[in-house]
User: Fold this.
Amino acid sequence: MNRKERLIKAKIPCKETGIEIRHSICDICSPTFHCGVDAYVLNGKIIKIEGTKNHPMNKGVLCTKGLGNRQYIYREDRIKTPLKRVGPRGSGEFKPISWDEAYNEIAAQLNKVKEQYGAESVVFFSGFSKWYRPFLHRFAYSFGSPNYATESSTCQTSTFMVWDVNVGNFSVADVANAGVFVGWAYNPHYSRHLALGPVMAQKERGMKVIIIDPRITPASQQLADIHLRPIPGTDGALALGMGKILIDNGWIDKDYIENHVFGFEQYREYVQKFDIDTVSKITGIPARDIEDTVYMMAHNGPMAINESAAPLAHHKNGFQNYRAIMALSAITGNYDRPGGQIPVSFTYNYMCAGFKTREQEFINATKKPGMRPKVGAARFPLWDELVDECQATDLTRQINEETPYPIKAIFALGMNYRMLPDSGAFRKALEKLDFIVNTDLFMTDTAKLADIVLPACSSFERGELKAYGGGYLQYTNPVIEPLYESKNDVQIISELASCLKLNDPLLEKGYEECIKYILQDIPITVEELKKTGLPVHMGDIVGQYEPGEFTRKGYNTPSRKFELYSNIIAKYQDKGLDPLPTYVSSLNDWDEEKYPFILNSGPRLPGAIHSRTHNVPWLRRLRPNPAVDISTEDAEKLGIEQGDTVEISTPNGTIYVEANVTGKVLAGMVNMYHGYSEADVNSLMDGNNVDPYSGFPGYRTTRCNVRKKEVP
Assistant:
C-alpha cells in the first residue's frame, strides 16, 4: 500500500488524497438542535462524518443518530425516481415516471378535488423533517386550504399552548443561572442530548437536581439529588400537591403573586384538595419524599423547570398537568427572572435566536379570508384558537364521517401514519381517499399507500437556512449532489406551485428568493451566509434578555398577568374545559381487569427517532428487535424471562415482541418504543383517548394486557 492509499484509508483530508471537509447539518431528529456536521467527501461521496467543533450548537458533539448519517444517506431503500401506483393501494406496486408526469398528475388530481369539493378537502401534511414547513404552510394557503397539518399535532405544540394561556409567550428554563433544576421528564442521554451539558455544568457549580420520571434513567442515576417516580400521568396531582405545600408553608413570592398573577385565590382554594396523603396515594410516591423535594425546591432557588416536548403532554390530562407544573414557577416568583423560566420568541422555524424575521408574514401572505374551519376545530376549540394548524388526531374521524366537509386528498412530505393513535384506523381512513401524494427518502409503509411517491434528498444534498440560539444564522451548501433523481422538498413545492397555477410568484421563484424575503430586515445577505457556510453571529440586532422587562410591560394575556385562571380557556367552559389547572385521571376507560397494565409507547431509545432509523444498520443493532420493557416484579409473576416473546394486547389488537426484563420501570407499567412495521405499538392505542384541550394522544397511559406467548 503506497502513501496515498494509506492516507485515503485513514481518511486524511488534503490535496494528495482529494478528500475535502464540507460543512452541513444533521436533520435526522429535532429541529431544536440540528447539529453541525463535518462531512469528509471523496469523489462526490461522503466517507466519514464528524461533528463541527466550532459550531455554536453542538461544539463537535454528535449523538448516535448523527453519527449514523452516512448509513442513513446511502440506505439501499432510497427512492430513486418519482413513482406512480399501479397495484392496489398499500401493495407497494409502482412504476417509475418522470418528474413532469408526476407534477402533471398531482396538479390534475388536486385541482379536480378542489373544483368538485373545495380546496379545504385537500390536506397538506408535514412529517419529518421540518426544514420546509413555512413553505408547505404557505403552499396550502396559496391553494386555498386551511388544512395544513403536521406531526406536531402530537409533539411540542401542547407546550406552546400552555405558555400561550399562561403568559402569551413561549418560555424556557434558564439552567445556567438556576439554584435548583426540576428535571420533569428530563432524559437527555436518550433524547435531546445537548440538553445535558448545561445541567451538568451548573450542577458542578452547586445546583441541586430533582428528576421526576417513572423510570430509572441515566439522568436519575448520574444527576439526581432526589428522584421521584410518579405513576404515569399523575404529574398534575403531584404538582398541585407541591403547590399546596409551598402555600401552606409560606414558601411563595407574595409580592409577585399580588402584582403579576391572576387567579391565585381560585388556585389556592383548588389545591387544598391535594393534601400530602391524597397526593401520595394518587402518585405512588412516599409522602416524605414529596415533602423533601418541595423543601429543596423552595430553599435552593432560583428554580428552573425542564421543558418537555411530549412526555408530559402525551396523556389525556397532559395539557392541564403541564399547566399545574408551570404554576409552581408563578407562585414562587421564578418566572421572568434569571435561573427561572424566561420568555423567548421564535426567529425562524421553531428556533429562538434573539431577533425577528418575516417568517410569519411569508406564511400568511397568501392566506385567504373566509376559509372553512380547520380539521379538528369543533372537537378541539382551544387548539383551533391558539394553533394555526389543523389537529391531525381528528383526521381519521373527519375522513370517515365527512363532517363538516369531506377530506378527499392528502399532499404529504414525510408523512408517517404510525405517528397517530390507533394507527390501523388511520391507515384504513387513508385507504378511502381519492388521492395521496407522499414525499420521502425511503419507501415507507405510508409511501406504499400513496398514488404518487416523490423522492426527497437529505440535508447533505441541499442548502438551507438555520437559526440558532445565541444569535446565529447559518445557510448550508450542498455537500454532495442529490442522489438519483431526488429533489429537495422546497424545490418540489415551488415547482408544483407553478404547475398548479396558484398565482404565487414568490413561492414559484424557489427557496433562495423566499429566504431573501424572510431575511430582508437582517443586516446580512443570503450570498454572504452561503459563502461562509458556517453559523454567523448577527451582532447588534440580537436582543439581550433583560430580567423582569416582560413582567414590567405586562404579559400577553387578557389580564396582562400570569394566568393561573385562564381567561382564554374560560370561553370554552361549556365545552368541558376548565380555566384552572385541574387534575383528572389520565387512564382510558378500557376494562381494568382485562387490561391491568399501563402501556407507554413514548420512551426514547438512543439510536431511534420515530421510525426514521429503524433500517439504519448501525443504529438498529442497538436494539435489533422490537422489545417491551417490563419490571422484574411483573415478569416474575407472569413467568416471563429476558428475551421471551410476549403478547401485548388491547381492544384494538395484539402485537408480539421480545421481553426486556428490567428493574428500571415501575411495576404495572410497560414501555415500548414505537414505529416498528412488524410491531406497531401505536396500533394498540385508543384513538379516543386524547386531551380535550390540545388533542394530544394518550400514548403514555393506555390500558393493556401483557402475557407470555404460548408455545404450541
